[in-house]
Amino acid sequence: MLGEYRIEGRRAADIAASVERAVGSGELEPGQLLPPMRELAVELGVNPNTVASAYRILRERGVIETSGRRGSRVRSKPATTGREYARMDVPEGARDVANGNPDPALLPSLARAFAAAAERNDREPVLYGDALVEPDLARIARAALDADGVPDGPLTVASGSLDAIERVLAAHLKPGDTVAVEDPGWGSLLDLVPALGLRTVPVGLDDDGPRPDDVRRALESGARALIVTDRAQNPTGAAVTATRARALRAVLREHPETLLIEDDHGHGIVGLPVHPLAGITRHWAFVRSVAKAYGPDLRLAVLTGDPTTVDRVTGRHRLGPGWVSRIIQRAVVRLWADEALDTRAAASAYGRRRDLLIDALAQRGIEAHGRSGLNVWIPVPDETAAVSRLLHAGWAVAPGARFRLTSPPGIRITIATLTPEETTPLAEATASALGPAPNRTYV
What we know:
- By secondary structure, this protein is an alpha/beta fold.
- The chain is about 40% helix and about 15% strand.
- Strand 1 and strand 2 form a beta hairpin.
- The longest helix is centred in the C-terminal third of the chain and has 20 residues.
- The C terminus is likely disordered.
């Protein structure tokens, strides 16, 4: 079960530390099954409750997961180890349509924006005790949020969407609380929630966003928080419509104490309007990042919400990193203010690439989803077989297991850099990988 590695320790903390060290060093790999608690207790000569406490510590730290009678195993992306253990290596010669990145050719040059920000910093250096948020950034961001119907509220800045979401969750929840998440959903978020010691409950979705009945069931079952992707949902491309937003608001009115977090990471690369849910519940947060439109290394997300939420996030931020670099904030101001940098062209390009692939797949009898964003989601009967066959044909796609909790199998294809000339060969390879059309009766 564990190969040559032997778990050690007499106290729960020592046993947990032994497992965590092994995961961090790679001696215990993602997915590896741990011994049953009673079996390990006998081996170590300790009470089974001690091992149970150790496993609980590991679960709360996001190192392991427990699935009833199937036992406990190292998480697919444990919080304690490097991501290279879970990374999919793309062999030489294969076309990578799995990575989820935007097209570098559609990203603007950052040189002028950062040069201007640095020059201003030379004139007006940011010092300890200065404002956390660049005033011009707050002004421009607030105007855009107002135009999109996001309720008024204080504003702060985080180092990307995931950082903002983590801070909001930590501001309100405690280990053991349950968070309702989209399924399939963003793999990094599905890993983050248990790493914070929180539990996940899946919410199904379609092209129009989370299903209201699933959200209602999750909240009635005790979920204290709900995370919704407004547009460019990863991996399915779902986008919340006006009709779906009204239905979701009606559900949230029944549960006003729910912590609502909305992720609008697709801002700037999606031609569809946003239909925010914010303002219905007592505590809420709306997160808007710049990574997809301006580059993943531009680690900045604007966060607005109710006063209590933003105050807690800001206060905790001050005690840690302090603030997000004002030079970065000033560079983003320049990017947003530069009328020559119209991101609508990128949104149109991504839309054309998605539509071309979805149409080509439909012509071959293959169901595919992708209303917005950088990805297309394809339900499949067997993920492993589909991924393997496509890789053999020269296409590296992302297995759906990275994005699923209980939803049916699928694969994700990133269309960001897909050319028209590649669309037909990829569709044909996908059709071949999935087998004859009569077998494609799944949903």
